[in-house]
Write a structure and sequence with these properties.
mainly alpha, elongated
């Protein structure tokens, strides 16, 4: 395996692990926070259900943004000419 291919493989591996953490962590954090609140303030089980729903919605938004950014990078739409504020002027 060439050095360039190895670097590309490591980049994709780090991207995959970043994606996994970005999608898995919001529901876990929400559930643990809800369990803490439930014990601390003696609220019902509804807080756990609300936390699960909130965590799933947050993971969905993270997934959508992650995919949108990386599709844009792969398609080459992040060129200098396509960035906002860099329009050509004919003065």
């Amino acid at each position: 395996m060439k050095n360039k291919d190895r670097m590309k493989a490591l980049r994709y591996l780090s991207l995959l692990s970043q994606f996994g953490f970005s999608v898995a962590m919001p529901p876990l954090i929400c559930i643990f926070a809800a369990m803490f609140i439930q014990k601390k303030f003696a609220v019902g089980d509804w807080i756990i259900i609300a936390a699960i729903i909130t965590g799933i919605i947050s993971s969905g938004c993270t997934f959508y943004n992650f995919i949108k950014v990386h599709i844009k990078k792969e398609s080459g739409d992040n060129n200098e000419q396509n960035r906002p504020g860099s329009e050509k002027r004919d003065d």
